Amino acid sequence: MSQPESAVADAQAGGRSGEPLAKLAQRYGLRRAIARPRFPVYLRQLWERRHFIMTYATSRNVSKYSNSALGQLWQVLTPLLNAGIYYVMFGLILGGRGTIHNYPAFLLVGMFVFTYTQRSVTAGAKSISGNLSMIRALHFPRASLPLAYTIQELQQLAISMGVLFAIVLVTGEPITLLWLMIPVVLLLQTMFNIGASLVMARVGSTMRDMNQLLPFIMRTWLYASGVFFSIQEKVVQAAELPQWVADAMYLNPAASYIEFMRDILIQSHPPRWWIVWSCVFWAVFALIFGFWYFWRAEERYGRG
Asked: Which of 39, 146, 224, 251 lies at 20 to 30 Å from 59 by C-alpha?
């Protein structure tokens, strides 16, 4: 009798005799089909499926606006329209443009950078719960889905950043050597977005109300990140709060990436290297913790 046949016979006998099937499986070196692999193996499996991740992200990007008349232009129009609304409210009505140098560039940098993180986190929260049929039908590392969603947002950002650079130049900002740091900012922010997306993917897979709560969370995060106002001016000078309150707000990851990009693109913003270190910390911490946290629940995705 062959080993597989022997294993089946023993399993049937074990079932009748009351011997736990788990011990039989261990004796013959069998593992569950959905068992969570070791973390290094899991990362290797993700790398082996990199072409699937890129193709899936690109196909979603192409199909996302296929039913609208303006198509892919909406990925640029949405942050521009939001920026226009905030410019009227905070720049004209509340007088923000009178206290901040080059307020249009200041506002647009904040909107485009924050929107990238906002959309990545929001998409990540739905990446598992919105693909249950694929998860139950196919065997692949589930982290492929939030990764693909973040790459999709990065692809959309590429067009948006081209528009942003053009607007910044039109408002009178010169091209400097600091512009060479732009890919560094985007790399660090993408690392953070991947980690945050992975965390929210796990939370969203079990917490059904998260998609209802997330818009309120993101709006609060928007208001706390200095997108349309100067944190230093509003917190320390206008509200007369201690300096450490403003520093704590700058250490908010969204605010850090916004300020890093403003320091590069707007000449009146001198580089602040402690902001750079904040960006590095959040990128590394979020990426490592996000992968570990998501991997810990790999066996539970798609159940129920």
From this structure: 39
